[in-house]
Amino acid sequence: MDQRIYTRITQGLQRDRHLSAWTRIAKGGRLFADIARAKLMLRNCTRVGPGTRVDGRVFVENLGQIILGSELCVRAGSLPVELMTGNGGKIEIGDRVWLNFGCVVAARASVKIGTGVMIGQHCIISDVEVPERVLVADATDDARPITIGDNAWLAGRVTVMPGVTIGENAVITAGSIVATDIPAHVVAGGNPARVIR
Question: DSSP E strands: which ranges in the chain?
Fold first, then answer.
């Protein structure tokens, strides 16, 4: 068993010691089910880090590279999460990232998501204007790389446009369309997103 999984189990048992034995057993069963589901749902990814969990469905179309860090948590119970790369495209997702239901991450060139990033429901992160176009071999769309820094938080229904960099620890408010770079350590929002504070 991977040391990180063992550590998580130990921490979980310590944290939940006030719960009944049956509740702790049920939580442990869900954890192992999520880890097993991740192995099935993410089998077409190039690399999947240890401790990755999936609750729900993930659609993977990998014509390039999809590299997932350790302890990725996908919560897709209501709607699936979609990960798509075209020929030569690359998605890199760091450790301890949270992806919520209905998210789409698409790369014809490059999408890089840092460590500890939280992505809310229905977010779209695509290096081309229409995410599905990354799969079209002869498409002429201009792909521009996207980078999201460590510990950033994208609330629900955020759209990150091609070519954008979001700095570390930045917070993007719900429903925003991010069309230009957002610096680190700020709160930004709107259409187009701009720094609020």
Answer: 47-48, 53-62, 65-68, 73-85, 90-93, 98-100, 104-107, 110-113, 118-119, 124-126, 146-148, 153-154, 159-160, 165-166, 171-172, 177-178, 187-190, 193-195
Is a pLDDT exceeding 60 seen at residue 107?
A: yes
Cα(87)–Cα(159) distance, rounded to whole angstroms? 23
Residue 51, token pair as written in the block: 């401790």
Q: What is the mean pLDDT of residues 80-85?
A: 96
Distance CA 35, CA 79 (A): 19
Residue (of 117, 109, 119) closest to 88 by Cα position? 109
pLDDT at 5: 64
The sheet with strand 146-148 has its strands ordered as 47-48, 65-68, 90-93, 110-113, 146-148, 165-166
Q: Identify the band that residue 60 occupies on the pLDDT scale cut at 50, 70 and 90.
A: very high
Task: Kindly report each contact of residues 180-188 with a partner whose C-beta sits within 8 Å and lies 24 or more positions away, as own/partner.
Answer: 184/149
Report whether CATH 2.40.50.140 matches the domain 3-195: no
The answer to whether the predicted template modeling score (pTM) of the entire model surpasses 0.90 is no
Helical H segments across the chain, by residue range = 3-15, 21-41
List the chain domain ranges.
Answer: 3-195
